[in-house]
Fold:
Amino acid sequence: MSEIALENLGKSFGDFTALADMNLTIANGEFMALLGPSGCGKSTTMNMIAGMLRPSSGTIKFNGLDVVDVPMAKRGVGFVFQNYAIFTHMSVRENLAYGLRAQGVRAGEMTKRVQAFAELLQLEPMLDRPAAGLSVNILQRLAIGRSAILEPAIFLLDEPLSNVDAAFRAVMRSELKSLQGQFGQTMVYVTHDQLEAMTMADRIAVMDHGKLLQVGTPLEIYNNPADTFVARFIGAPGMNILNGRLTQQADTVAVDLPGLGSVALPPALQAAAARLTTPDVLVGFRPEQINAAKAGLTMHVGFVERIGARTIVHMEQGAASAKAVLLSEVETPKARKDWTFAVPDDAIRLLDPVTGQALVGRPN
Amino acid sequence: MQRSIAFEAFRYAVILGIVAISLVPTLWMISMAFKPIAEWSAAGADLTWWPRNPTLDNFRFIFGQSSTELIVALERTAGRPIFASLLTASVGTLIAMTAGTAAAYGLSRFGQGGNLPLALIQLRLFPPMAVMIPVMIMWSFLGLIDNWFGLSLIYGIVTLPFAFWLMKTFFDDMPREIEDAALVEGCTRWRVFLRITLPMMRPALASSALFVFILNWSDYLIALLLTTRDWATIPVYMASLSSSMTGQLYGAKAALGVIAAVPPIIMGIAIQKHLVRGLTFGALKE
Structure:
């Protein structure tokens, strides 16, 4: 069992900084997702944890011990690659047994464990088939099995589900989760798919351009994104962010959204808004949290997407655009008409227009 | 896309033309190998495409059996040159493939070796004739003239660039993750190379080795300069198949040519499965 601590971790390739000053502690037995778009540094971080890359700065500690100089074979980590890295010249059984053999496990014990894992991952019927020519879904299970069979204390998965079809992805999400429940490894899971991160992870580390932007539980990140990037990246669709101006109305502070109307700020946010030096502010709210109202904000509906139970409304007004996600059963707005909606008090988030940072939700 | 019939006809005409140009000499050689002396020495109207009286006399002749019609006694038979060719081409291929594969792997994986790729390709910059005289002097000094290891060694050196460049492209194309996966599971570098990399590169090794072998097998110039008698190879021996009485012994040369074509064809068929399968490896294509 292992705790992973990344301390001021950085990696550059020549002039290019792939990762800068990353600090993250992953608790023993935790399922941590590294989430971000391509090139955000998440795979670089993972490869350094595994020992395939050497950090340019900072340290990596397993249970408090510095492992930067420990070769990858000795780190006791399991790694599942995006392209599975199956040994195609071997059978499924030989692939599963490969790591055990390399570590000198006795033949009897080896056969027992291969059998157990083949059952667990439903690979039993094809154990003696050559690994070349198996379907993507089976290769995927095999790749996970080959690493998991060594029962590593740390299990690293690099976008393992990005090549499989949607239905199988859903199955594997729950299987991975139960696999972890069974063995209790510390799991680090790299993905660009926020749905995978949200459904599986205990905590998510959101990254962009080589920087760690926010760490928190899926709900914390969904509810209180640290900045505009996280706000837009998490959620499908992401959070609406509109330009506004703070105005003093009698004894309350409101935000005027040009062309749309204005929203009154709840007391908690008024204090935060007071810290801003200019009246400009960004207003964020989740598309799922707004609903039709008699008075509130008004926008022009561009088009309406009906996706089964939910309906996505695409709206614009001047330079501003926003989306609403409504239940299809309720009356949904018509395309090319104006629509008035209200944002509940607790759904409003304020962000600094200069730095992009959220005004509350993160300690000052 | 719809192409006109005229274009298709033209296309096939060109293809047939190319096939004919490349195959007719081979077929002519095969035909001549089975002709008796009266036929292969014929000219003008007596010339036929197929042997009228097929015979194995030419083959018997080069292996030392004198024929009634050809009253020329051969100083040497074809057995020894065939053995010399097989041995030197094989050992030369082994040398080139071993050194080339090792160098290509090191360079592809670790970026070691600096100018090695260029240094190797410049081995091919000069016409062979330009370097063969110095090589001949060196080989003579080292006592490597007219023995199998001397010839094998130069074959290995001359074809090393091909082995290296072919293998380097194949190693570059193999996903590193496959090796990383084995390393992370506790394998040593050597074990990964021997148990994972080389077995997965089998198709690449087979096709490169075939290519290098054919280069060595068909060499004339080097063998001509570095052998005198005992280790003359098939091409050198073939050039000697003539006599003052009969002139060029075309029938015997054709028979030897047919024999010389056999090993590459057998090797080609043996590794055909690897050649056509291509290199897809274990990973998915992006």
Notes: Chain A has two domains: 4-223, 233-359. Residues 4-223 of chain A form a domain with the Rossmann fold fold (CATH 3.40.50.300).
